[in-house]
């Protein structure tokens, strides 16, 4: 994907509701194909990702074997009801752990995905989510734009590698290791 096209896509997100923009699978595939070798035997965390709607979760769970991942952890903010899309009506969040395909059908079946309740709402800054962050090797997501600075500061504080989508005007004083930027 060209930078221009990605910028257009991100501008569209701005025009709607920034914090609730969901990244398209095609955009994720086009970008992450450049980093496949970095995922071998790594635990990937998507910590702003409702697994029912997040294409980051979709991408990593469906490419788990191809990428030779060790583990995929995904946290879901303020939603613990499997039948709801991210409505943020719940006080609690959940997290998912996926360790790969067990029955050789190359699809992450529901019974292969461990679903765990969080004590809190799944805020990436909460103690329990920070514990999950500490278990991760690489963090990959599109975080809420309104919390971008805090989000990146936390990743740097915990010395995590990351690939995140952001806006180049986001208030951040250091260049992230890798971020997809928009004008
Ligand atoms: C820009 S959307 C991107 C969603 C998903 N990562 C994707 O790329 O499709 C940001 C997501 O962060 C979630 N979120 C908002 N505040 C959060 C917080 N404090 N902690 C964790 N997630 C949060 C929102 O519910 C939303 O799903």
How would you characterize this protein structure?
The chain is of the alpha/beta class. The chain has a domain at 38-160. Helices cover 28% and strands 17% of the residues. It has helices at residues 3-15, 25-32, 55-62, 64-67, 127-135, 148-157; strands at 43-46, 71-76, 94-98, 113-117, 138-141, 161-165, 179-180. The protein has a 7-stranded mixed sheet, with helices on both faces. It is globular. The chain starts with a helix and ends with a strand. The protein binds S-adenosylmethionine. S-adenosylmethionine is lined by residues 19-23, 48-50, 54-56, 77, 86, 122-124, 141-144, 147.
Largest sheet: 7 strands, mixed
**Can you give the mean pLDDT?**
85
Give the end-to-end Cα distance, rounded to a whole number of Å. Answer: 16 Å
- Protein structure class: alpha/beta
Bound molecules: S-adenosylmethionine
User: Radius of gyration, Cα only, in angstroms?
Assistant: 16 Å
Kindly estimate the percentage of residues that lie in beta strands according to DSSP: 15-25%
Question: What's the SSE pattern?
Answer: HHEHHEEEHEHEE
The order of strands across the largest sheet is 4-3-2-1-5-6-7
Unreliable stretches: none
Enumerate how many helices there are, as a single number: 6
Strand tally: 7
The oligomeric state is single chain
Q: What percent of residues adopt helix (DSSP H or I)?
A: 25-40%
**Shape label:** globular
